[in-house]
Amino acid sequence: MLHWTLKPFSELSPHELYAILQLRTVVFVVEQNCVYPDMDNKDLPSWHLMGWENGKLLAYTRLLPPGLSYEQPSIGRVVTAPEGRGKGYGRELMERSIETVYKLYGKKEIRIGAQLYLQSFYASLGFRPDGAVYLEDGIEHITMFLPPLS
Prior knowledge:
This protein is an alpha+beta fold. The chain has helices spanning 14-31, 89-105, 119-123; strands spanning 3-8, 47-53, 56-64, 74-80, 110-115, 128-129, 134-136, 139-146.
């Protein structure tokens, strides 16, 4: 059972920020063998949703305001620690992320830049593809959107 916290960048403790950057590096840089600029100036205006278990960060997303990555609000840096996989944390993380984006920015369309191999996972949450597959940092991605709630 994860303990969830949500904070804007300005309220992250040094420990939380270190845990976020460490998890993103372990998965996106080392595990996926992808050298890319993780610090992209989008963390500061974003909200950070963290799932903790026994003091260890196991699930994380950053929630971006409209106009930062897309015209719509978006969810990015979706990551589950290797030791947290297979426990449903990824689905819970995305469900909580969607719910939180609705609370922060209204029940508008949400956009994501999904790694292509996860397209069916995001589709199971209601996301639909929008556009062609593209390469980002050597990994195939596709833009997807979650239609607004009426």
